[in-house]
Amino acid sequence: MNRARLTLLLVQIRDNPQTRDEEWRSFAQFCGLKPEQIRILNLFDTPQFGPEVLAGVDGVLVGGSSEASVLEPENYPFVVPAMALLRHCIDIKMPVFCSCFGHQLAVRALGGEVIRDQRDFEMGTVAISLTDAARDDVLYHDMPEGFMAVSVHRERALTVPQGCTLLAYTEPCTHSFRVDGAPFWTTQFHPEVDRAVLIARLTQFAHHYTDGEDHLREVLDSAVETPLSNDLLRRFVDRVLLPK
């Protein structure tokens, strides 16, 4: 496969216009692709859809969300068809990389449990631990223990679904798994977000995640760069999509 000919589908769960554009360009940057190589399916615009959205794409990315919850399908009607799409991708072995909301969506789609934290949730940059299984994984085998990643989420999964292999974690939650027998990876952390974007996004959604200006400043001052986690998207392209 030629890199310049790749086309990916970004399943986007963003309502804010500024964040829509930023997330799209960030995924393109860290995948090492041009933005026009990433087609967008925004679920706020198109809440009902089927497998036809996969026509002509080589892989699927699922982004994060500060404006929706996988625990509230009655309020967000796109949750159920999005879970069905992920299961279909697994059935046809379509390469998939799910980030944050996408990780939680995959957990629910595969029969796992997601819980909500009202306070004391992960927010900022955190050190990610690896499991023994990560040593044999195509994306993680050369990642160092304790690499730093952006993690901002109020919902989390304590375990991975049946038929999946845990690859990375922190003490509070699972952070990455692969579906056994399928080119399907998830991360609770944000490989598409670097320190600069974290600062901009947390400032924008401070009311949703922080307890005031002092709390926001504390989180932002402690944030570090996350080049290794950001490199996971390029690895997904180079090691999974291009060899196809």
UniProtKB/TrEMBL annotation:
Please give one Pfam family short name: GATase
Q: Which InterPro entries match?
A: ChyE-like, Class_I_gatase-like, GATASE
Q: Which part of the chain is the Glutamine amidotransferase domain?
A: 75-194
Q: Which GO terms describe its molecular function?
A: transferase activity
Any single GO CC term annotated in Swiss-Prot or TrEMBL for this entry: cytosol
Gene3D superfamilies with a match to the protein in the record: 3.40.50.880
Q: Is-annotated flag, keyword Transferase? A: yes
Keywords linked to the UniProt accession: Glutamine amidotransferase, Transferase
The name this protein carries in UniProt is Glutamine amidotransferase class-I
Lineage per the UniProt record: Bacteria, Pseudomonadati, Pseudomonadota, Gammaproteobacteria, Alteromonadales
